[in-house]
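Final report, closing paragraph on structural work. Over the funding period we assembled a curated collection of sequence-structure pairs, and we close with a single example.
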Amino acid sequence: MSITPDFEHLVPDVMLDAVEDALGVRMSGLATPLPSYINRVYETQTMDGTRLIAKFYRPGRWSREAIEEEHAFTLDCVADEIPVVAPMRLPSGATLHEADGICFAVFEKRMGRQFEIRTRTDWLRVGRLLGRLHVVGSRQDATHRTNLHPEESTSGHVDYLLDNGLVTPGYRAEFEEVADAILGEIYEPFDDPEFIRIHGDCHGGNILTRPGEGLMMIDFDDMMVGPPVHDFWLLLPGPVKECRAELGLLLRGYEQFREFDDTTLRLVEPLRAMRMIYYLAWCAHQVDDHRFQHNNPQWGSDAFWQREVADLTTQLQAIRE
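Its predicted structure, as stored:
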């Protein structure tokens, strides 16, 4: 996956023409760019005043089939009355469209504010939302999405960083050593747990609250196939051993809808290490993008890799405890 020049040509007129063609209706001139780390997302408006969100997917990141599996998961959730933001089915019957080789989807604009988990009731509500989400996730497979077994995902991230010379020579050996040690510790624990469709990036920023409608899950861009526990640990304010009360409430809500395998809590620290390595590789794919360079001027320096190796070493110790 590398940065391509295609987005440089995605000027407002091109975007609006593509959305008009997909919708079969005239658009106004509104084309407000919205924050997105890797895709291009715009707020648009039809001539009758309906506000929509157009999301153009980074070429090369996901295959068409993988994006369609993301859409299928959210539409399955809608069918079960789980509040999510799913893509619109447009006149063609599809949810995914193309403009000059760039896949895009259109969504209804949904307002909401980030849900702050503060009380016992809040933790229970989030647990119930995850339980319902995972019931739906367990019904179908997703063969084109990331498989969260470290042999299928993390080892490839490590190889990408090393094979492309992205780790500076002064820290290459240390990074390779600690990454190999982490992989050696975590392969076996992932062989037995259940793997289902999960959100994949389930932190507090991706849960919104809407007056009169309850909680809503957003941003399934990192949807993957993995152990259900992965959708829990990012919500916790610290390590599992320090968050037993919060975790207990999450699970109490969750198990109103679906049984949880308590033995998979041992995967949390390995999953944390996997996310750290994933994030390094994710950033590495963007190093040639001028916006990334502007926002992360020290990325890839000796000082950067010194910190990352130290953090991974600390995380390795947490896995071994």
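The chain has two domains: 5-110, 120-320. The chain is about 40% helix and 15% strand. We thank the funder for supporting this effort.
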